[in-house]
Amino acid sequence: MTELATMEFHPQPQAGEPRPWAFPAPERGALGNGLTVLRCDRPGQQVVAVELFLRAPLDAEPAGLDGVATIMARAFSEGTDKHSAEEFAAELERCGATLDAHADHPGVRLSLEVPASRLAKALGLVADALRAPAFADSEIERLVRNRLDEIPHELANPSRRAAKELSRELFPADSRMSRPRQGTEETVAGIDSAAVRAFYEKHVRPATATAVVVGDFTGVDLDALLDDTLGSWTGSAAEPRPVPPVTSDDTGRVVIVDRPGSVQTQLLIGRTGPDRHDSVWPAQVLGTYCLGGTLTSRLDRVLREEKGYTYGVRAFGQVLRSAPDGTGAAMLAISGSVDTPNTGPALDDLWKVLRTLAEGGLTDAERDVAVQNLVGVAPLKYETAAAVASTLADQVEQYLPDDYQATLYQRLVTTGTVEATAAVVNAFPVDRLVTVLVGDAAQIKGPVEALGIGEVTVVSAE
């Protein structure tokens, strides 16, 4: 008779005592050329992250040249006075580095990630790109063609099409915020290397820029390295550019972007509200998370679990632009998609969720779960140098103090259920929401009109 082998089980690991954590505080300084520098030493982070913020906002783009900031941002990696576009890409690759750039309403961001051992070489390349970008005719023409090729694909994407329509509806026609961030076919087609260089020379200089450097600086003379690289970039001083106020019209109404035959309807419901400078922001973050921030939120519980209308609906607040005087704004929105026949019922239930929230409020249990999810996962969220650098750069572009993120977590912990309820109800008033639906107007217009949530207008998807 064969004897069965005995299995030996190792003891199950036990969780240790949680260690205190706070969002890291940066050290602030400046180079001789006027460039502001925030540094944050993170032992063990051998991949260093660098975020460069250039205060060249979209509203500074010349009339008729929307998208020139985006083309400029992409062109920074397309050659310098020392390297052609191909050579620049090869040098970055030899460093094991990645360099990305994009333009948004506050300005242009360049994001570099590189092993600490090759930081000097990679920063030298970025410094060359900022100091003497080539902006060669052939490269700008190629970037313009690429951008023109992207636009039809974006218009074919229901969520991108909804976002474009919501911006057009919310903001005045003469506001840059009413138009696509990366330009339209008409405006991008008019961009050439002369336009890109003119925008660069007028708005890009170290005196109005900030570099955020995060990683393990052991054995690195960061001061000398920064002086030798980014310190070589020169430019004139400049007066701070005035930040225009954000104005919007959130009169309750519905716009249907007609897509005949569509089997789904993309929903985007929004308005503008206070940004991070407002004292209500922590409560608004908490309340919005309870409304639609996760699978356990109210919207998901009703529209996804109970009714089966959707795979998920999310509510969120996204800062659009901030100002030194605190007069910025954020987009407050609810987004998702539902099957076409249930568009009317889904919107009806969504409005019922909002009304129920206003009448009965959030529960303490909902608030506690939100705090746990938002604050409890923060140490994991900021494990990488890139995540820390990106958040610090966000604070710079939004004119926030360096300790803002750390303070925000403290305030989230102390925000009560009543405060969170009031904030989210004020953020999403049932009679002050602009609703954009991308779908088959012939099928959804009648049921939506019957809801009485605002005048319904149909526009072409073109």
TrEMBL record:
InterPro entries: Metalloenz_LuxS/M16, MPP/UQCRC_Complex, Pept_M16_N, Peptidase_M16_C. Residues 192-374 form the Peptidase M16 C-terminal domain. This is Peptidase M16. PANTHER family: METALLOPROTEASE, PROCESSING PROTEASE. Residues 41-167 form the Peptidase M16 N-terminal domain. It comes from Streptomyces daghestanicus. Residues 1-22, 233-252 are annotated as: Disordered.
